[in-house]
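Field: COMPLEX_INPUT
Field: COMPONENT_COUNT = two
Field: RESIDUE_TOTAL = 862
Field: MODE = joint
Values follow.
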Amino acid sequence: MASLLLSRRDLDFLLYEWLDVELLTKRPRYAEHSRETFDSVLDLSEQMATKHFRPHNKKSDANEPSFDGTTVHLIPEIKQALDVFGLSGLIAGAMDESIGGMQLPSVVAGACFAWFQAANVGTASYPFLTIGNANLLQKYGTPEIVDAYVRPMVEGRFFGTMCLSEPQAGSSLSDVTTRAEPQDDGTYRIFGNKMWISGGEHELSDNIVHLVLAKIPGGPPGVKGISLFVVPKHVVETGERNDVVLAGLNHKMGFRGTTNTLLNFGEGVHRPGGQPGAVGFLVGEQHRGLAYMFTMMNEARIGVGSGAMALGYTGYLQSLDYARTRPQGRPIASKDPTQPQVPIIEHADVKRMLLAQKSYVEGALALLLYCNRLVDEEKTAETEEERAKATLLLDVLTPIAKSWPSQWCLEANSLAIQVLGGYGYTREYDVEQLYRDNRLNPIHEGTHGIQGLDLLGRKVVMQGGAGLTLLHETVTATIHRAGAERSEVASLRAAIDRVVEVTAALWSTGDVETALANSTVYLEAVGHVVLAWIWLEQLLATEGREGEFYDGKRQAARYFFRYELPKTGPMLDLLASLDRTTVEMSDTWF
Amino acid sequence: MQSAYGGRRTSMNIVVLVKQVPDTWAERKLKADDKTLDRASVDVVMNEIDEYAVEEALKLKEAAGGEASVTILTMGPDRAVETIRKALSMGADKAVHLSDEALAGSDAIQTSYAIAKVLDTLEYDLVICGSEATDSRMSVMAALLAERTGKPQLSGARKVTVDGGNVKIERQTDNGYDVVEAPLPAILSVVEKINEPRYPSFKGIMAAKSKPLTTLTTADAGIEADKVGLANAPSQVVEFSNKPPRQAGQIVKDEGDGGAKVADFLASQKII
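Field: COMPLEX_OUTPUT
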């Protein structure tokens, strides 16, 4: 029976027929792997996700975490699922062998993890954060930190968090006030409050490893004075309970299986070493914390895009399944009431909603796997030049990989509800929960607006515009491979050329306020152009192949080029006009 | 779980019979030409109960402090290697794959002959199999092998204890269980109640690639070719027909007599 979480057929197509992931096994880092091991870990992920993550998805939504003043309570199935996950070794899938990892290519590890996100995004959040945390510390932590905190995370015994936001400083990290007081023994004591911390407190693991942004007194102002610290719930070195406590749980619209917390550091509730203050260990150098954290943030942003995609994907498959079995109405050209009703999938408008979902979720999956493939290129491409190119292209695509699925796979969930009609609006079916869960994704790990600023204000202009040039080159290369006779080629060529022109126009006046006023519109327009390119790539990969799967891919590509890419025209027109409507709006006029 | 290998036995050899079968959830069909199962057109998986057999062997090995060896024995086409790898990735030590065109279409009696011949080439204290395969559902392999090898059979085990040179099981019955004991070597079949099979770990998947896998032909195993295969099978599928399509349901409108109508329906179907 085909899964309603993701399509393994689609994954196999993207991994093996499009991205040719098997080629990676020729590189030394992945030499121990083969198609056989890739397939085995994908099988294992699907089975574990289906058997251990999926069944409690609804229950953890209906029974959100509670705090009795001492302990956070979660339904037991979450820990049971995470124990199975930990034992499998999946946390260390893509990590180095030296730390107990399997050195799976990121593109395969990403595909594996998507199964868990589709099955239960709330429970999957704990290992998601732990993997990012461990990757950061492995890169920048001292050997002592790696031994004390990273290895247990890799083994699934400790879980990790990332603590950036504060009650008064969310998107504006330059305003964080948590402070880190240096101690004579080289450690620090952390004092302050951190808000929106996912996985900040629970009894699911033996320890919680917080990565905390804080300022060392006397350092430079703003983001240049931010340092990064490991602040464990239990200090492994001394065995003491650290002075970090839960102030309260946030009660959320979705993602309810994930605890979301306000944490107090250094309030003196616990007194490690006989004094208040949370013991922290500096990661890397002082005042470079934000740069380190962005290692995790960039990985997390692709992961958030993946979560959004996975929620969209399972919603699509569930609404497709419903549409095939729900009889309602008769063909519009033959409404004979004596004839039986047809399944709603026979109606053109339902097919439109399913095609839209298909084009969003399969497009998003392809984009995310492509980005993960770039991570592998960054690590293992043969020449320094190729590795640098992969990094640059990944930098440009990351805000899109985060935002586009968060916007359009959420829309896919909305369409899934629409396909189910009244039933979709009830809690009897899953699609309403998927929508609520997915609504988080345009908010966390850098809001939609922040991603727009990142793309237009930083990524396309960095290195003298090299990022945008590389994106243009990459898309153009696909256009050349496609050949001039394809109808899709002309529209994509026009769109990507227009993106370059409009970017130049936006920055032509040197007026930053005007240039960035519509950065979200820019993000969405470029996102759609990038996805059209991804669909052209998939279309090329179907060439010479026959069967319903490939026909479906070709039709979804047709849909995207006919219905979606044209939406970018008016958006790019607006941007080119340097419109100032939003800037010139006054607070008092609302 | 008790274990008493110390001093008397330094190591125990366990052979687990594992079969590759069509996915239980897939629609399974017989081929029109030779009336055998169409294996090519469906997804294949490890026979579900065999996972419990593998798990039990691994548990016995763990209970013996690792002083045991678990060998997977599979008869099947080339593709069955996928299933063997899964068993190895769960933690089995090595595998023997009996694969030969001549075996295609063998029935249960022939299969037991072929497997018994392979067992003759192996040293074993315990042979563990699942209680039935989801494709053929004969549930006879343990009994046939016991007969062919002259070893005791302990069937339907829901619990297994190895104690010195003996194996003791709780055999599942309709009313409870029987305790059955036999000296090793013995042939054992297990039921689903016995354990919860583990998943392969990532490390297990990687390790499985380099574990010894011996492929045998009928000649290698001393199997006489004219005793196996469809043409020589003692049992033959003479005829088959596909399941008839489901009939339209009967809708009964409740006009105060719904209960009686339901009772009449059940009586007409000889259910009550």
